């Protein structure tokens, strides 16, 4: 299956910019929660992390996951290169399996203390909006890309399937973190298939048993299947506190502090209690 590699970065960039713009406007028109800390204090660092992460991935993984798929296909590596399936079945199966991988990786980053320290940067945002879905420490992005490339090559996923997955993951991460108000009836229907903002907002609660639930970014089935689903935060969406206990100072929202956060030694009374 030939693949136009020269179009891949432009397609991803265009989709990213379009989804970000649409959701940012929707958050202004129909916000779910009133934000005490405005965009001006949070967005520069959140978007700064996106820029750093993108540059680092391009430097360390020039071909990224799509390139890994092409590399594996040319050599006949991976499961889907060893079986004869209709193209649409292969693409659908690869997208679903890669989504399961991201769910499992997310659980792992919560369960292993050193990984949690880097993932905690994502959770330490004091508000919850479309840019929270882009706010990841560069160490986590590098580890995530290495895991993804290994999975793509093991599966032998088609380059088109990987591109579809990457675009979906990026778009649904922004969607599931958006501060958008959905009618409750619509939310109940939509979250049967895909993760909604209300469903994922619970995951960003300061309450540990809520933090360690609702790990999905895209498909909603995994949390129900593996018993990590929580319907609503105990305090309600308007009353819940977002973030982590250790980083409540607005100064911790600065880009430099976000980059140093996983390596800061906290006093004993502030250390993690799970």
From TrEMBL:
Location in the cell: Membrane
Recorded GO MF terms: oxidoreductase activity
Principal subcellular localization: membrane
Highest taxon listed in the record's lineage: Bacteria
Enzyme class: oxidoreductase
The Fatty acid hydroxylase domain, residue ranges: 92-228
Assigned keywords, A-Z: Membrane, Oxidoreductase, Transmembrane, Transmembrane helix
The keyword Oxidoreductase is assigned to this record: yes
UniProt xrefs under InterPro entries: Fatty_acid_hydroxylase (IPR006694), Sterol_Desaturase_Related (IPR050307)
Membrane-crossing segments per the record: 12-30, 50-71, 91-112, 145-169
EC number: 1.-.-.-
Classification via Pfam families: FA_hydroxylase (PF04116)
Matches recorded under PANTHER family: STEROL DESATURASE
Protein name, per record: Sterol desaturase family protein
């Amino acid at each position: 299956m030939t693949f136009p590699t020269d179009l891949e970065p432009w397609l991803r960039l265009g989709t990213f910019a379009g989804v970000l713009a649409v959701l940012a406007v929707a958050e202004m028109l129909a916000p779910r929660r009133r934000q005490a800390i405005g965009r001006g204090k949070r967005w520069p660092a959140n978007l700064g992390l996106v820029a750093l992460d993108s540059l680092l991935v391009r430097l360390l993984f020039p071909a990224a996951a799509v390139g890994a798929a092409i590399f594996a296909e040319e050599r006949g590596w991976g499961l889907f290169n060893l079986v004869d399936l209709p193209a649409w079945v292969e693409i659908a199966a690869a997208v679903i399996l890669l989504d399961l991988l991201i769910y499992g990786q997310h659980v792992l980053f919560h369960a292993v203390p050193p990984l949690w320290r880097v993932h905690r940067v994502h959770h330490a945002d004091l508000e919850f909006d479309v840019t929270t879905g882009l706010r990841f420490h560069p160490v986590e992005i590098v580890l995530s890309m290495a895991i993804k490339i290994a999975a793509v090559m093991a599966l032998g996923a088609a380059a088109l399937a990987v591109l579809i997955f990457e675009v979906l993951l990026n778009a649904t991460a922004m969607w599931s973190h958006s501060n958008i108000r959905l009618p409750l009836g619509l939310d109940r229907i939509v979250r049967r298939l895909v993760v909604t903002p209300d469903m994922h907002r619970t995951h960003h609660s300061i309450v540990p048993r809520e933090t360690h639930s609702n790990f999905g970014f895209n498909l909603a089935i995994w949390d129900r299947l593996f018993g990590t689903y929580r319907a609503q935060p105990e305090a309600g969406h308007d009353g819940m506190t977002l973030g982590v206990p250790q980083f409540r100072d607005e100064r911790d929202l600065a880009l430099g502090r976000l980059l140093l956060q996983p390596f800061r030694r906290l006093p004993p009374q502030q250390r993690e209690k799970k």
